[in-house]
Write a structure and sequence with these properties.
homodimer, alpha/beta, Rossmann fold, 14 helices, globular
Chain lengths: 357, 357
Amino acid sequence: MRRSVLARTRACLLVGLTLGACVRVSPRSADTPVDARAAVPLPSWSATPSRDRILAFVAAVTTPGGADYVPPSARVAVFDNDGTLWSEHPFYFQFLFIIDRVRELADAHPEWRDTPPFKFVLENDHDALLASGKEGLMELLMATHAGLTTEEFTDVVRSWTASHRHPRFDRPYTELVYQPMLELLDLLREHEFKVFIVSGGGLDFMRAWVESVYGIPPERVVGSTLGARYELRDGKGVIVKIPEIDFIDDGPGKPVGIQRFIGQRPILAFGNSDGDLEMLQWTRQGNGPSLVGLVHHTDANREWSYDRESKIGHLDRAWDEAQRDGWVIVDMKEDWKVVYPFETPTNAGTEGSAVSD
Amino acid sequence: MRRSVLARTRACLLVGLTLGACVRVSPRSADTPVDARAAVPLPSWSATPSRDRILAFVAAVTTPGGADYVPPSARVAVFDNDGTLWSEHPFYFQFLFIIDRVRELADAHPEWRDTPPFKFVLENDHDALLASGKEGLMELLMATHAGLTTEEFTDVVRSWTASHRHPRFDRPYTELVYQPMLELLDLLREHEFKVFIVSGGGLDFMRAWVESVYGIPPERVVGSTLGARYELRDGKGVIVKIPEIDFIDDGPGKPVGIQRFIGQRPILAFGNSDGDLEMLQWTRQGNGPSLVGLVHHTDANREWSYDRESKIGHLDRAWDEAQRDGWVIVDMKEDWKVVYPFETPTNAGTEGSAVSD
């Protein structure tokens, strides 16, 4: 369901039509380039240096015979997810998913009422929850997911994305993706890039919805993982999630995750926080051409505004390195005409969020 | 270098020309289907039920509108490597690589002379080495690779594949790949399958050569891994292999590795030993159509003959389940006209191995 709505919205924006007049397009696979000549590239991006640097880089690495030409097999592009492809406030959306899941399972776990971080969830103590950090998140995640098979877990996530809505925008979380970044993913695939997500978020959590929302297939998602075990249940093999951390794909874990899952160094990477610093460094320091960028959250009106002081999407060391090393800095307020797909020209201002232009 | 020779050999066999008359073909990416109509499918396979079942399955899942049609996004095919895509006798080739590496590094490690399993290597005690099993192999692997960056390790492996030759065939190990399986990989890619290796072998070891030999890109290889750490050396990020086992992609680890790296259940899988049993089960038990097969080593003349009694490529429980569940059993002697790419019709019998037809 989500796929068709988003695919239509994206296609409409690409050809500059309104939603009402838009024809339905077929979903396409991640590996099937479309004819790019009919489309204005990156239509939701303002004509700023950020957009122009992206377009120039894509042209440089895909022009045969050019000094910076890179063959398709090596065109690896990686994107952080939270705060880079979709929003991450007021809390990481997976965090909100886990909170909902803790509440659902609380009756079966009376001991949680006295045990942090579970008690923080049940008492709605958001500050204490936040203070428990990524370790607290992982503990909640393990406790709420252990024992589920991977297939059961996928069903739980899909049921949540279909039934829960973001508190500020009153829309499904999967609509709070960035239209300009969807266009960038499309542009890269049209130019035979292999596009991956490399996120601190849970691998199985993301895979439940990223293909329908971003067109990124399951095998092109790198994320944090719990342990897993294969076992026979009534003669049938299942893979069961077990309550131990296998891998945290964040910070210095991101280049390690890239090496493990992808096996070659990216030539393009986007992130938005210090958790992306090492991934961006690793991409930037390859031998050939590279483009790395930060999405800077500067638009409190249409989205949120935060950087150095924020606990979620904390952007400090990576910001300094971006300045020193000349990374692309995407200013959401200045560089993006539209933030979310639902802000089309015809319904601007009619949505839950005030739309400023 | 290897790529061009093998690509040429494969293309020649596909169109039925001799090597001498063959034109050079361009390497192609794993995602680019070629025009299959010009080629006889699986030309190195005899017209046996094994070949016919494979061809019928590929036709069934790729015919739009058919009852068993599977969209390209779900056409995941997985192949074991050792004994399924290339030979594994007298020892797993990575085992031989590690032995060579232990010898190269022995002067710097005098303590190895008294420490199993290192002393077995230095004393040429093959039986004791074999008896040390997969744990012994992993210990040797960790000790000889720790401290290398992933890029240094790739160089070491490539230097080894370029300079060492198989003891029986006196050819580079990368030539001891199975021509009929190369044709099967090609056939699947021509039909928009996503083709992965899922092997107990080392991930970084395989990635150093599988793209040039099989046309399988680094991101489509699943294997066993050591731990790895990102660190800065003189301000430059490197990924260093560390001496601890991260994941063993064998037996029940294979479905777990498939879930982690690929994220969806395969519809086609080939293996050759008990280490592949759970991967084949997992593939077979999906909800839709599936094809699983075992390569049975039956040709002592052209390759080797072994199954239940062999320590390497031990095939016992998986053989029984294959019989019960009706898996495809590929009899190398009966089903394959050619085993290795170098056994072309014009030079049969002139190679290190006697060629029986």
